[in-house]
Specification:
Blueprint lengths: L1 E2 L3 H12 L9 E3 L21 E9 L10 E4 L15 H5 L13 E2 L18 H8 L2 H11 L3 H4 L4 E13 L2 E6 H10 L3 H13 L26 H7 L3 E4 L8 E2 L3 E4 L3 E9 L9 E7 L2 E8 L6 E9 L5 E10 L5 E10 L31 E12 L2 E7 L2 E6 L2 E21 L10 E4 L2 E12 L10 E5 L9 E3 L1 E5 L2 E5 L13 E2 L7 E3 L2 E9 L2 E8 L2 E6 L12
Helix pairs in contact: 6-7, 6-8
């Protein structure tokens, strides 16, 4: 559906348009663009220049968490949109949210102050300075706060940023569809390249190149690739189709971090973000983490003026559950700031299910929905590396003599790193279930389970393996009891299985299903976690099932012995 401005905002924007008052910039735009020339399309697949919008999302700066439902701003009236993917931000997609058709009518917002042209085309190019000016204008930011339901003063405090994503309203194979650049890349992957083959000049060039970052921010790199040619799906997902409006911090330099929950005896990463005046080899910054009586020192932290650097340490949690206070100190450029993080160390052991017995009953049993814990399957980060830009100047001392002096300066290169987590789960009847057939078994027998995990990263020193897998069961409504899986093989490429069951006659890695289970699917659920990166923990929801048909009593037959 369509949303409109509040009366206050309408009057404010009308006065801005009518009176000769200067517009005041409240934020700073981290936006650049490219593209140009779009071709002719076909009668079934085409796009009209100007048929566009911008998705707007408020994001917390410290941990990159989306804090508002995205809204789509546009000058158009796209009431004829037949297909879209809901209101999902690039951050959510990159954190593992799957591309899903939106079932509700496409909703959009017409701002009182028209949005400038965003997507370049053969009909004319967008002006990046005009785009920056629009999205950093105080009245526009006030409207964004009003439209998203987010407090304006909180928005501009320096703790939050605005994520912008260009949207194209196109006709594809006869269907009017709305999509961001990230959605176009994900959709093209689903179609096996079908979108790129037909609409590539828009979907893989002008739309993603309509906005990208000048400098790294929110875990996304600055774009250094071509500004005039089509991009790959991977480049679009990782680096294109976004702009950011950020706001000055109140008291730089500062340390921002967030609390952690860790498991006992686990390798973890603890990170903070350091900001302030430029740090370079002439003015290095040092960060110290004091954890459990030990101090971890990170020297030579560098970043450009007004920017930031993620700083982290890798350590192992203690063997006993407890609350730990992590003190962080920052020194450099004559200023220091203290930070304190609280880590909750928990122990998940000791919750194994009880031994099922033959006369167990649960007449009130009903199937519960599978859990859906927070899932994040990829992360990206980077490190600033300074390099000296020499600039030699001749200083004359008279009479044709003098000397050369280097008046150069420090420049910075951004080195990007990433990590991804993939995994699968397989459940099957135990080999000791005598009447099992394929994936069908009778209740009362055991099941086996294997979780196969792959962690891929370009900086292994900053990424741990996935270390914890916990399986929950439907007979307990996925609560109260669970089994901690045992890593039986590997590290970054690993397998997890049930620990050996102390109730198993054969000491097998099995879980016994209760004999009272009704026929139907039996679906254990596993939460895979503790793959730590500087950008937090990677985790996955996993599931599989076997079919229950009958119970083990039907395998027993008692009859008198013939004489």
């Amino acid at each position: 559906m369509k949303r409109t401005l509040s009366i206050f905002m309408v009057l404010a924007l009308l006065l801005t348009a009518l009176l000769p008052i200067a517009a005041y910039a409240e934020g700073e735009g981290n936006i650049d663009h490219g593209g140009g020339g779009i071709g002719g399309g076909t009668s079934e697949s085409f796009w009209d220049p100007g048929d566009e919008g911008v998705r707007v999302t408020v994001v917390r700066a410290g941990d990159h968490v989306v804090v508002t439902t995205p809204i789509d701003l546009t000058n158009q009236q796209p009431d004829d949109i037949q297909a879209h993917f809901g209101k999902v931000s690039k951050i959510s997609y990159n954190n593992g949210f799957s591309l899903t058709p939106g079932l509700e009518q496409y909703a959009y917002v017409n701002p009182g102050k028209a949005i400038p042209k965003i997507i370049n085309s053969s009909g004319g190019n967008a002006n990046i300075e005009v785009i920056k000016s629009y999205f950093t204008d105080e009245l526009v930011i006030r409207y964004i706060a009003d439209a998203t339901g987010f407090n304006y003063d909180t928005l501009i405090s320096g703790d939050y940023k605005i994520l912008l994503e260009p949207i194209a309203y196109m006709t594809f194979q006869g269907v009017r569809i709305a999509m961001t650049a990230t959605e176009a890349a994900l959709y093209d992957e689903q179609l096996g390249g079908g979108l790129r083959n037909t609409m590539g000049a828009l979907s893989h060039k002008n739309l993603p190149l309509a906005m990208f970052l000048e400098i790294p921010d929110l875990g996304y790199p600055a774009w250094s690739g071509s500004r005039t040619t089509s991009a790959s799906n991977e480049d679009i997902k990782s680096s294109l189709g976004l702009g950011i409006v950020r706001f000055s911090e109140a008291e730089p330099p500062q340390v921002s971090g967030y609390d952690y929950t860790y498991r006992v005896n686990t390798q973890v990463i603890t990170a903070v973000t350091v900001r302030g005046s430029q740090a370079d080899p002439d003015h290095p910054v040092t960060v110290r983490f004091t954890i459990g009586g030990r101090t971890y020192t990170v020297n030579n932290v560098y970043y450009p003026n007004g920017d930031s650097q993620l700083v982290w340490v890798r350590w192992t949690t203690p063997s006993m559950p407890q609350t730990m206070i992590i003190n962080v100190s920052v020194t450099g450029r004559g200023r220091a700031s203290q930070g304190t993080l609280t880590a909750n160390i928990v122990d998940l052991s000791g919750h194994d299910p009880p031994d099922p017995v033959a006369d167990d009953r649960n007449d009130a049993y009903s199937r519960a929905s599978l859990p859906n814990n927070p899932q994040k399957t990829s992360a990206s980060w980077g490190i600033w590396h300074p390099r000296w830009h020499a600039y030699w100047v001749w200083h004359s001392t008279g009479n044709g003599s003098g000397y050369w002096c280097d008046h150069g300066w420090w420049e910075f290169d951004w080195n990007s790193y990433s990590a991804s987590l993939t995994a699968s789960m397989s459940v099957s009847p135990d080999d000791k279930a005598p009447t099992a057939s394929g994936n069908t078994m009778k209740s009362g027998y055991g099941i086996n389970q294997t979780v196969t995990v792959q962690v891929s990263t370009s900086q292994s020193s900053a990424v741990t393996a996935a270390q914890t897998a916990v399986t929950y069961f439907p007979e307990f409504r996925y609560q109260s009891y669970w089994r901690l899986l045992e890593r039986t093989d590997g590290d970054y490429k690993a397998q997890f299985k049930f620990a050996r069951n102390r109730y198993s006659t054969y000491n097998r890695r099995t879980h016994f299903t209760p004999i009272w289970l009704p026929d139907g699917n039996y679906a254990p659920y596993t939460y895979l976690m503790d793959c730590w990166t500087p950008q937090g923990m990677l985790s996955m929801n996993l599931g599989d099932s076997v079919a229950i048909s009958g119970n083990l009593w039907s395998d027993w037959h008692i009859a008198p012995v013939k004489p």
